[in-house]
Amino acid sequence: MPLTVKITIGAGLILLALFALSEAMLLRVAYALFMILLGMILITTFQSTQRQLAENKKELTRVSQVCEELDQNTKIIVQTDLELTRTQEALDKKLSGLVALQELSRKILPIRAHDELCRVVCEAVVTTLGFERALLVLTGIGNQPIVARAGFEPEDFSRITLSHLIELIQTPVLTQGQPIFAADVSGKQRGGEVSAAAFLSQTKEKSRQKRIADPTLKEIGEMAGLNAFIAVPIQLQEQARGFLLAGSNPPYLPLEAGDLEMMTVLSAEVGVTIDNLVLYEELKKSHDELEERVKARTAELAKANEELVRLNKMKSDFVSAVSHELRTPLTSIKGYTTLVLGGKLGPISEKQSERLTKINRNTDYLSNLITELLDIARIESGRVGMNLKPTKLTHLLENVADLLVPQLKDGKLELKLEAPEKLPEIPADENHLERVFVNLLSNAIKFTPPNGTLTVRVTPRPEELQVEVADTGFGMPPEDVQKLFTEFFRADNPVNRERKGTGLGLVLCKKIIEAHGGSIRVNSEVGKGTTFSFTLPLKSSRDTVSFTA
């Protein structure tokens, strides 16, 4: 039951008791009761207030905790935002560096001189990568070191004794092949703290960082006029043959690990480019030497070729002159032997007849040889011409077949002509083209055993006629086929040993076919026969053609 209700009930009971008392007594009792009631009310109010204050204190504690949490979260958010900003700036810087390295790689790729390459790299380090100064030194290429610089004033660079600078950087960079990273050689940055934050970057073989003596770093910085710098080795053929030094002074931004990574990548790119440049120079030197040798050899060959042309002309002139001189007495010999054999000069014995017949046969052979030699001489001198006229190839082949009937009968051979009934006319010199077919078929007859078959096959094509002359003869090995169209070549076989020949017939065939605008080839297999294939164009732009060797 609530306290107020209890008080009310108690007060009611007291009032009922007061009605039984006297008036004076009633006043004293009433006053006492009033004071008691007032005290109870005050006590009740105080206790309620205390409870409310306790609850308010708890609420204030909770609000304070929430405020502290909000403050902590705010600090975390601000810290995270700063870290993200720094990360974004680092990424932007790295991206800019990579773009700059890509552009620099594109720029140095076509360079073919060491000094120009070093100059371009130094200028790019200053203008593109954001360093104040750059110095590139190459050793081991030529008699003197190659030096390039950017961002230095003449009076600044006059302080640098190159040999001494190389000596200072020799051990860490050139000998050990490790980069130097010096963030503050003076120790005056960052509110005066002495950091001398110089160290060699970690390598795959060594996971710990090494430090270079601060005085050495300070001396390098003073010589180069730099408070913060990076020195990276340039590897040539897997050996440190130079270094690239780059750095800055305030108010330039301080150096970071990303700068070291970027410079390391750049030095590797420069090393590869210089290696390629050295290989290019060696290759160019070899090429120039080879070119000189080729020129000298070409001059020798040209001179020898001129001499061969002169000798060949002398040979042709000699052959032509001798052939003409031989033809006249051969004609006389042929005429007289024919008269004697015919009995015009009196009777002769059988033995005399046999000897005269042999003379006649050899005379014919020599006459044919002289004719072919004269034809070769005319071809080589360009004095042979052909009159191209519309020609029916079927009619020409029938005439050739009639000419060869006696030889076919003697050899017991069959000749087949395979061609469409209607063949288009071709521009050709009938006499020369007939000679081609006679020579090819005569060879086929000579090298085909009895009961064999010779086939002439004509196949129309859109712009030419394909002609094949095939036999079922002995065939030839590949090494003889390769030499078949060489002047005076005769394959070494039993048939050629028994029969005489000049080795000029196929050469004439090839030249005549090429003069018509066609080409000829041969396929042969020992024991299966030989096939000569050649083409004859359906159209020609000229009516008269001269051909040479």
The CATH superfamily of the domain at 94-186 and 212-284 is known as GAF domain
Please list the strands of the largest sheet in the order they lie side by side.
2-1-6-5-3-4
Radius of gyration using CA atoms only? 58 Å
* Known CATH architecture of the domain at 94-186 and 212-284: 2-Layer Sandwich
Percent strand equals 15-25%
Overall geometry: elongated
Q: Please, how many helices?
A: 14
| Mean pLDDT value | 79
Q: Specify the helix fraction band.
A: 55-70%
**First CA to last CA: what distance?**
142 Å
Strand and helix order? HHHEEHHEEHEEHHEEHHEEHEEHHHEEE
Low-confidence stretches: 190-211
Classify the fold: give the CATH topology of the domain at 94-186 and 212-284.
Beta-Lactamase
CATH class of the domain at 94-186 and 212-284: Alpha Beta
Structural class: alpha+beta
The overall strand count is: 15
Fold and architecture overview:
The chain has 549 residues and is an alpha+beta fold. Among the domains are: 166 residues, 2-Layer Sandwich (Beta-Lactamase); 151 residues, Heat Shock Protein 90 (2-Layer Sandwich). The protein is 58% helix and 15% strand. The protein has 14 helices and 15 strands. It has a six-stranded antiparallel beta sheet with strand order 2-1-6-5-3-4, sandwiched between helices. Strands 9-11-12-14-13 form a five-stranded mixed beta sheet. A hairpin with a 7-residue loop joins strand 1 and strand 2. Helix 9 crosses helix 11. The chain is elongated. It starts with a helix and ends with a strand. About 4% of the residues have low confidence.
